[in-house]
Amino acid sequence: MEAADRLDVQELYARNTWALDLGDADAFLDTFTADAVLQMKRRYQGQAQIRSFVDDFRSRDFGFPRAQHLVSGLVLEGDGDHCQGRAYVTRVHRLPGQHRGNTHLMWTGYSLDLCVKGGGRWRFQSRTLRAWEGEIGRQ
Amino acid sequence: MPPPGPLTVEDRLLIRELYARYVWAMDTGDLDAFAVCYAPGGRLDVGRPADTPEALKEWLAEFLKDSAFPGSQHHYNQFVMDGDTSRCDVRAYWARLYRLPGTTGSQIIAQGYYTDTVVKVEGGWRFLVKRSHAAHELRERKFGQELNTAPPVGEDSLYDVGQKLFK
Q1: What residue spans define the domains of chain B?
Q2: Model ipTM value
Q3: Does A135 contact B at CB distance below 8 Å?
Q4: Given an 8 Å threshold on Cβ–Cβ distance, is B104 in contact with A88?
């Protein structure tokens, strides 16, 4: 896997989390293939179901819109067309107010992902997010 | 073998990924994956030094007895790399996050920094020397002296800066 592909996939993760944390369903969907699977507590398959997830997230999630998903520990294995990614995912939440120390950790977990390149662009074929507990790495 | 050249973009990416593989191995308790992150003769210089694959695995096995395992993650950022295509000094911040049992909440339980040397061997970049320090040690140390070849960060350590900010 070449350096340019690695950078592109890193940016795919960044675009994906920016979109979710801003509640931008179009931008979020743009990071997935048409038949992609987003697996969390529930499974969302395809653009319509994934859009419904973002809509629910915007309207119901406790942390939205003051939280960020941070991606780190990204390990990529693959070639110029497909790759598997695994990453730590941390969600931090800024409480209202301008004082220091008003940010707390909401969640620590990880993702196991499949990325594919089509039309010169990398997208997620699947994303699986899990809490950092239990048997780590089991799909 | 050609003489070493300047670090390439690919080198920098692969060095960062070495850190990713390392913390994944540590936080999931994967002894073999942990030892593979070290070059032949590579040394972990934290607590009791370890410089063979067997000693490295023993070191991790001991570390895993920590009450925060399982359930914690090491995160790193703020990389500074000084070196060439064969060898590189790396410093980075780290923080250890712990998922509180029975809740969805988490907290930071430790933070510090690494001052490491990595080398390129067959198979990729590996640790030649790995050192980890608690954040408060920055008060007594300055980069560019005993740690590695990185330039000084200024008169104020991060600890001092933090003290001013949070006073």
Answers
A1: 9-135
A2: 0.73
A3: no
A4: no
Among candidates A88, A100, A101 on the partner chain, residue whose Cβ is nearest the Cβ of B75: A88
A132 in contact with B at a CB cutoff of 8 Å? yes
Q: Is A129 on the interface with B (CB under 8 A)?
A: no
DSSP per position, A31-90: TEEEEEEEESSSEEEHHHHHHHHHHHHHHH-SSTTSEEEEEEEEEEEE-SSEEEEEEEEE
Under CATH, what is the fold of the domain A3-131? Answer: Nuclear Transport Factor 2; Chain: A, (3.10.450)
Q: Please report the pLDDT score of residue B135 as a whole number.
A: 66
Q: Contacts of residue A63 in chain B, CB cutoff 8 Å?
A: none
Give B155's DSSP letter.
Answer: S
Per cent of chain B over pLDDT 70 is 80
The answer to whether the beta carbons of residues B91 and B147 sit under 8 Å apart is yes
Q: Residue A136 and residue B13: Cβ atoms within 8 Å?
A: no
H and E: helices and strands count for chain A: 3, 6
> By mean pLDDT, which of A3-17, A42-56, B100-114 is the weakest?
B100-114
Fold adopted by B9-135: Nuclear Transport Factor 2; Chain: A, (3.10.450)
By C-alpha distance, the chain B residue nearest A106 is B105
- Mutant choice from A1, A108, A135 vs B, greatest count of B C-beta within 10 A: A108
Total-model pTM? 0.80
CA A45 to chain centre: 15
Residue to test with chain A: of B99, B107, B125, most A Cβ within 10 A: B99
pLDDT in tens, A18-59: 999 999 999 999 999 999 999 999 999 999 999 999 999 999
